[in-house]
Amino acid sequence: MKISTTRVKKQTKKTKKIIKKFLILLFWLLIWELCSLFINNEILFPSPFSVFRTLCVLIGKRYFWQSVFRSILRVIVALILSIIIGIILGVISGINEFVEELLNPFIITIKATPVISIIIIVLVWVTSSNVAILASVFMCFPLIYTNVLEGIKSVNKNLIQMAHIYKVKRKYILKDIYLPSIKPYIVSGILMCLGIGWKVCVASEVLSTPRYSIGLNLLNAKTILDTEELFAWTIVVVLLSFIFENMFKYYIKNKAKE
Length: 258
Known about the structure:
Its main location: membrane. Pfam families: BPD_transp_1. It is found in: Cell membrane. The chain crosses the membrane at residues 21-39, 72-95, 115-145, 177-198, 230-248. The protein is globular. The longest helix is centred in the last third of the chain and has 39 residues, at 170-208. The two termini are 27 Å apart. The protein is mainly alpha-helical. The chain has 2 domains: 1-40; 47-257, MetI-like fold (Orthogonal Bundle). α2 (48-59) crosses α10 (227-257). The protein is 88% helix and 0% strand. The chain is built from 10 helices and no strands. The chain has helices at residues 2-39, 48-59, 62-95, 97-112, 115-125, 128-153, 157-165, 170-208, 214-223, 227-257.
């Protein structure tokens, strides 16, 4: 009976949470509708109904799915490369102070450079289909790198000294001391990259105009002043970013339970 009661309480709590989120979403949709009515100009600020109607029309078209798939692919490739480069360089820099000092000016420069500048420079270097990937890597890997570096520096120095005293091999120090300690920092860095990666990728697509991309569709909608479609594609980007982030959180949550 106690187990059954606990399950009911958990289910009730979950239901309340869903209802609460739904009401919050409804509130903002209402604000959106009121703003649209107040401005009273569909070109400047379309209503939620017209935007969702346009979105439904887009979903039924083949190029919509081709564009979404290609953009997702670019973001995934960019994130994977950012994570690999960020972790490797972060671990090496955390262990070797000279490497940290060597990379520091480059990391500071990348962080300080405006996104638009990065995209334009990359546009000169590579083909239009690869601009979004490289630009996203440039913007995302420093976040992973910085977090991993902080994680390495936060490792208990006594543990490292003890491992050296007992002549523990470096690979075991890395595997059993450093990696478990930096895991939360890596997770935090990836969560930051998931949002930034989508923003940079779509912005890069707008400028580089690869054949199938969300960015190109945004640019086309803006060019012909189709604000409803512009809003619809923006919602697609927000939803994809939200889905990616929640999928990653769900994966980490399940991993923690194992």
